[in-house]
Design goal:
This protein is mostly helical and 151 residues long. Helix content is 72%, strand content 0%.
Length: 151
């Protein structure tokens, strides 16, 4: 089909231009086509170079982002580990505090009040004798019981 159209165009050009001008027009047309092809090739090559440069920049930025992402994930893991450790420590302290606030069993809860000796000796001697009992291991003040601390 293209061959028929090309032959028809050549025949029309021969009729309108004549046999003397047809070779000159064909030569000029060939130069114009080559020039347009050269410009198209230059533009295509320039676009290709620009795209390659953009791809390289994109790859560099992507690599930087991946490195930053990995670093952030490492920091996140470290912070999570610290947070878990802190939570475990807080839970341990809370349990210890609750255990310290529990009422003592009835057998050990009897504390004999320390009475100062009437002979004038220092109260340290009577405190030393009461320190041997397990109930005196936790110091208690006389008076109303205090409210427990809440965390």
């Amino acid at each position: 089909m293209w061959a028929k159209r090309g032959f028809f165009i050549l025949l029309v050009a021969l009729i309108f231009l004549g046999p003397e001008r047809l070779p000159q027009v064909a030569y000029q047309l060939g130069r114009a086509v080559r020039t347009m092809q050269r410009y198209a090739r230059l533009v295509r090559d320039e676009f290709r170079e620009e795209l390659q440069m953009l791809e390289e920049e994109y790859k560099g930025i992507r690599a930087e982002m991946e490195a930053a992402r990995a670093e952030l994930r490492a920091h996140e893991a470290e912070l999570r580990a610290r947070l878990e450790e802190t939570n475990r420590e807080l839970e341990r302290v809370r349990r210890e505090a609750q255990a310290g606030l529990q009422p003592l069993p009835a057998a050990t809860s009897r504390v004999t009040p320390a009475t100062p000796p009437s002979n004038g000796s220092p109260p340290a001697a009577s405190a030393a004798t009461s320190a041997s009992s397990p109930a005196s291991a936790t110091p208690r003040e006389s008076g109303p019981p205090r409210d427990p601390l809440v965390f």
